[in-house]
Design goal:
By secondary structure, this protein is α/β, with parallel strands linked by helices. The protein has 2 domains: 6-94 and 208-263, Rossmann fold; 96-207, Rossmann fold (3-Layer(aba) Sandwich). The protein has helices spanning 16-25, 47-63, 74-87, 96-106, 118-123, 125-133, 147-152, 159-170, 191-198, 208-221, 244-253, and strands at 6-10, 31-35, 68-71, 92-93, 111-116, 138-143, 179-183, 203-205, 235-239, 261-263. Strand 3 (68-71), helix 3 (74-87) and strand 4 form a beta-alpha-beta unit. Helix 8 packs across helix 9 (191-198). The longest helix is centred in the N-terminal third of the chain and has 17 residues, at 47-63. It is globular and about 50 Å long. The structure holds D-glutamic acid. D-glutamic acid (DGL) binds next to helix 3.
């Protein structure tokens, strides 16, 4: 069982930030990544549709024989995590809780910002999870719907993206804020531009590392961790529509060497 792969999915390229962090921390694990590129973005879809897409992605990964799944998508984590956890009999992790814990760890001022897709911000999942752990924390959030298509286009650092970021982040009441949760796995690709708008006094919280650590703990607790001597670890990449940008970004994240990206129908 422990030599089985771990499934990771996102609507597109964003979850590759999580895949890369997991690969760094758990080099002996085999990983299967699914990017639902035919249906990206999820962030402007209804809760019912997001739930259905998430279930279809998990069913695909379950058929591949995975031992655990990481929902490397905030939108799907916000709307589908408890449902998916009941539906499948192996561990399923989302990205919201690790991001929340990390933000509370670094934040001093008790004012935390959250940016995410429309569906994630509307769900208020971050405000609820932050306040559950610390009732006095102040949360300001804004949705940034154009960020995901810009990242999928690989426009991560140009004047258009900077102008879009400035416009969105102007609407975030930032007085006394010292941490901003990047509540979408696509957004770490925009760290440079977001950092330029906000300045160095606001820490950008990217949950990828925190998710990898949660997964490590979860595998150890469930006796599912691959042996440190396991040599068969590899990465498989699947998408629901083939785009050359996916390959370009995957190559950047996986440092050059990527396996063939296979197109699948869910
Ligand atoms: N990267 C995803 C997220 O974390 C999905 C973005 C989208 O498809 O809208 O929310």
């Amino acid at each position: 069982m422990s030599s089985k792969p771990i499934g990771i999915f996102d609507s597109g390229v964003g979850g590759l930030t999580v895949l890369a962090a997991i690969r760094r921390l758990l080099p002996h694990e085999s990983l299967i990544y699914l990017g639902d590129t035919a249906r990206v973005p999820y962030g402007n879809k209804s809760a019912e549709t997001i739930l259905r897409y998430a279930e279809e992605c998990c069913t695909f990964l379950a058929k591949k024989g995975v031992k655990a799944i990481v929902i490397a998508c905030n939108t799907a984590s916000a709307h589908a995590l408890p449902y998916i956890q009941h539906r499948f009999h192996f561990p399923i992790l989302g990205v919201v809780e690790p991001g929340v814990e990390e933000a509370l760890r670094v934040n001093q001022s008790r004012h935390i910002g959250v940016i995410g897709t429309f569906a994630t911000i509307q769900s208020e999942i971050y405000a609820k999870e932050l306040k559950k752990r610390n009732a006095s924390v102040r949360v300001s959030s804004v949705s940034c719907p154009l960020f995901v298509p810009l990242v999928e286009e690989d426009w991560c650092d140009n004047e258009v993206t900077l102008a879009v970021a400035e416009k969105y982040l102007k609407n975030l009441g930032r007085d006394g804020m010292d941490a901003l949760i990047l509540g979408c796995t696509h957004y770490p690709l925009l760290k440079k531009v977001i950092g330029e708008c906000l300045g160095p006094q606001i820490a950008l919280i990217d949950s990828a590392e925190a998710v990898a650590i949660s997964l490590q703990k979860c595998l150890a607790l469930s006796a599912l961790k691959a042996s440190d001597t396991f040599e068969g670890a590899g990465v498989e990449l699947y998408v629901t529509d083939l785009t050359h940008r996916f390959e370009t970004i995957a190559r950047r994240f996986l440092e050059g060497d990527i396996p063939e990206v296979k197109r699948v129908t869910l």
